Amino acid sequence: MGLLSNRVERSEIKAGDHIYTYRAVFAYSHHGIFVGGSKVVHFTPRHDANSSTETSANSYEEKYDLSSSCPTFPDCGFRQPNSGVVLTCLDCFLRNGSLYSFEYGVTPSVFLAKVRGGTCTTAMPDPPETVIHRAMYLLQNGFGNYDVFQNNCEDFALYCKTGLLIVERSGVGRSGQASSVVGAPLAALLSSPLKLLMPSPIGVATVTAGMYCMSRYATDIGVRSDVIKVAVEELAVNLGWGEGGNEEEDNGVTDQLIAM
């Protein structure tokens, strides 16, 4: 994969890969974990069964309607009640968009060269079987409430791949995409006083771009100091989402869903 694009063919992805596709004419990307069998587990704003309104994040991410039927897989769109973690087929995940593969373990220079956030991280991934276990466990037990900046689809995929969780949740989450949204105006704000010292538009633009890249790098989970490794079975208890589920039962459901 090159510096400009992480686009891949379907034949190139493997079970346990972190994949994504762009929505709304490249306005944002939607992320998920490919678990094999043409199935993807991903995180979306949930629809509260006790309310006629959807989450506030619905303008950023699409809601998957369980009543819609997939012509290929009868279990496409499976999710637990009031959960945002959903299992769909690859076609429904892509929605006619192109397929991209998220990169792990990149060098700082490559990370900074990727101008757009949400495409790579310096963090190292865990083995595929561990990644799939986390994704399928969260499909059964949920991933908390969806939040555009602190707990979105990219955060979900990053956790499945690395098991890393941010200790202090008052700021931006693991998502590089969210960091880009926050970092761009921040860089512009910080560089604005330099306009008095650097009358050249090119000079100001260069400083702004540098600050933007460094703000992205500083929030990458591979270099942050406020992240810890948390087992998926302990995730819900640690974050106050409720008690963990029955692992033996989850494993049986996992195998059945992927095989279908």
Automatic annotation (TrEMBL):
Superkingdom of the organism of origin: Eukaryota
Stated name of the protein: Uncharacterized protein
